[in-house]
Design the sequence.
């Protein structure tokens, strides 16, 4: 998978997650993909101050991204 194809797949994953985040007043933005393995995102809106945002990041965001792009190893929230 090329870097461009990988970016498209990660964006598709974020589009699948976004409605759940939006329903709680939050959102997510793709910041970068490094070495075609490490994704950096920014949780926004209500997600910034949410006490369970790390659980959302691991259980929701990372799992969904890996479903679309299995070669991704890590997903990190950048403040």
Sequence:
């Amino acid at each position: 998978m090329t870097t461009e194809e990988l970016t498209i797949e990660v964006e598709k994953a974020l589009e699948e997650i976004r409605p759940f985040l939006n329903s709680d007043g939050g959102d997510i933005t793709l910041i970068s993909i490094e070495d075609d393995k490490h994704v950096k995102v920014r949780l926004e809106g209500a997600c910034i101050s949410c006490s369970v945002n790390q659980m959302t990041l691991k259980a929701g965001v990372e799992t969904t991204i890996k479903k679309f792009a299995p070669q991704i190893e890590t997903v990190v929230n950048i403040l």
Remarks:
- The chain has a mean pLDDT of 92.
- The CA atoms of residues 26 and 47 lie 5 Å apart.
- The beta strands are 26-34, 38-45, 74-77.
- The first helix runs from residue 3 to 23.
